[in-house]
Amino acid sequence: MYKIVGLFKKKPGITDEEFSRQWKEVHGALVMKKQKPLGIKYTQTYGLKKVSGYTKTNGIKFDHSEEQEYDAIAETWFTDYDSLKAVIDLLFTTETGQELLEDWEKFGDVKSFVIYIGEETVIYG
C-alpha cells in the first residue's frame, strides 16, 4: 500500500473553527471530486488541543497544546504505485493541482507544508 502523508498549519489569523470548516467542507469536497478516482482512502486528522503536558522519561514530549508545530494531518492511500504517481502528477503538473493549491491558500499556510510519500507496512490492524 502506498501513501501520501501531509502535515499542515493553518494560515495566520484563521481560527481553528474556520480552518476545520474550510478544510473539511470545502477543500475536502474538492479533493473528493478531483482525486477520489485514484486513491482508495483520504483522511483528515486535527490536533486535540485538550491533550497536553505529557513528557516521557526519555525526554520525548507529547504535547498538543496551543504551541503544537502542525495543526492537521492528511493521508491518502493507494493500492498501487501507478495510482500514487498519477496523483503526484495531478497535484504538481496540472490545472487541477493549481486549483487545489489556490483553495488551500485561502486557509492554510502553504510555506509550512511537509509532504511525505512512502510505502506503508502494516504492523497490526
Walkthrough of the structure:
With 125 residues, this protein is α+β, with helices and mostly antiparallel strands. 34% of the residues lie in helices and 24% in strands. It has helices spanning 16-35, 81-93, 95-104; strands at 2-8, 41-46, 54-55, 61-62, 72-78, 114-119. Strands 2-5-1-6 form a four-stranded antiparallel beta sheet. The radius of gyration is 16 Å and the shape is globular. The two termini are 14 Å apart.
Enumerate the spans where pLDDT stays under 50 for 5 or more consecutive residues: none
Mean pLDDT: 85
Helix/sheet category: alpha+beta
Shape, principal axes of CA atoms: globular
Largest sheet: number of strands, sense, barrel closure: 4 strands, antiparallel
SSE blueprint:
Elements: E1 2-8, H1 16-35, E2 41-46, E3 54-55, E4 61-62, E5 72-78, H2 81-93, H3 95-104, E6 114-119
Antiparallel strand pairs: 1-5, 1-6, 2-5, 3-4
Helix pairs in contact: 1-3, 2-3
Please give a handful of descriptors for the protein shown:
single chain; alpha+beta; 4-stranded antiparallel β-sheet; globular
Short description:
This protein is 34% helix and 24% strand.
